[in-house]
Amino acid sequence: MLGRLQELIAALEGEEALALAKKMLNSGEDPMAVLETCRKGVEIVGKRFEDGKSFIPDLLMSGEIMQSVSELIKRYIPVGKKEKKCGKVLIGTVEGDIHDIGKKIVAFMLEVNGFEVLDIGVDVSPELFVEKVKEFRPQVVGLCGLLTLSFEPMKNTIEAFTNTGLRDQIKVMIGGSPTDERVAKYVGADAYGRDANAAVNLCRRWMAVSD
Predict the structure, then answer these.
(1) Is residue 211 situated within a structural domain?
(2) Residue 80: its pLDDT value, please?
(3) Which domain, by its residues, includes 7?
(4) pLDDT at 164 over 70
(5) pLDDT class for 210, splitting at 50, 70, 90?
(6) What is the pLDDT of residues 20-46, one digit of tens each?
(7) 84-94 burial string, b = 16+ CB within 10 Å, else e?
(8) Same structural domain for residues 71 and 154?
């Protein structure tokens, strides 16, 4: 059924995918396995977009399907795990980039692990990041980008944190397929997260969260 679920999401069959995911979860399937399968399905849509074989509406639709499945999966996570309050993380996709899927998965995994997350969306300007950091007061900020063109906006956002006196109050992590340790150093981030699990581990370490 995992293979079928991946196919449905790749085909943008939202209602059928959600129904199958619910059936699998009710039958005892590991919620994280369901989430990972959904991620792979969405990844196929993203690859088609990069190859010019699908369009922005398809990308947005796959994100909506992923969001619906994520909300469903949350109900199957042990309550005690969700109730922990480990700290605050603000996350957003930087200016000029509308990719949403990877960010949503990171936000979901952080929430599952007990962090309070504020997802401020895509194409977020440095000014809006600064505004939201002042309002939300997170310990960690995640900057996402799936385009190499995102590197300069990441750098500009971190410079905006410095110019407004916020940089010393937060840890900044970056993520997205074109990012790596060298990019993190270039833009002035504290670290690079290879995937959602890496992002969770960074936040746990920075906030001294124990198991």
Answers:
(1) no
(2) 47
(3) 2-76
(4) yes
(5) low
(6) 999 999 999 988 889 888 888 888 887
(7) eebbbbbbbbb
(8) no
Identify whether the C-beta of residue 45 lies closer than 8 Å to the C-beta of residue 12.
Answer: yes
Structure pTM?
0.75
Q: Is the domain of 62 the same as that of 88?
A: no
Burial of 124: CB neighbours in 10 Å, binned 0-12, 13-18, 19+: buried
Whether residue 18 is contained in a domain is answered as yes
Judge whether 173 lies within some domain.
yes
User: Given 29, 59, 76, which residue is the final one in a domain?
Assistant: 76
